[in-house]
Here is the input.
Amino acid sequence: MTTFCLQRARWLGAAGLVLLLATSGCSTLLPKAKPQPAFYALDGAQIDTQARAPDRAATNMAAPTLIVNPPHAEAGFDSPRIIYVREPHKLNYFAYSDWIDTPARMLAPLIVVAVEHSGAFRAVALTPSTTVGDLRLDTEIVRLQQDFSAPPSRVRFTLRATLVHSVTHQVLAQREFDTSVASASDDTYGGVVAANQAVQIVLDRLSGFCTEAARRWQASPSGAPNNAAGSTPGR
Here is the structure.
């Protein structure tokens, strides 16, 4: 009886060990839980409202009105996916990180705020709008990407801007703004912070560009708005 019990105990112990090994082996075959996706925003327009010109254009009926068209984006940069590069001409996407919206749609209200705070325009409106403007601003995102080709990684942001006469459709000024900001960390979050900084730099330059172009247009013989018609350019 004692021998039988001893053999039974050995058998149960061996069976338990086999079961434990089998369970451990199966657990390694189970799919691992995917990381939770993270979503980021472009909201870096930190504008000092005290830096406006003393004679704000909003109180100057001779100042032009600007219509801002929603920005476009070149192919590859027109989705919410966050782009990075390791080698030229090859775009990659972070697997579990996205923008909360496309960069173009996030950029649109930031452009309005930046240009409005320049003080160079009587009003700045984003289309669609009932406002009829003297001038129109068209923009296009050429690139917004985190570059890992050399440490530290850097975010490069390029924006093309065109200022157009709303009635004649004459191009008054055109410029491409390009800036690169080093990332504090070689990960998605470091890139997002750098992207917001890059956007702010470009917005500041864009604001100056619009101000300069509008003043040149006003100084030209046909650049004075017709106040009687509201925002229609004068003869």
Confidence is low (pLDDT under 50) at residues 48-55, 225-235.
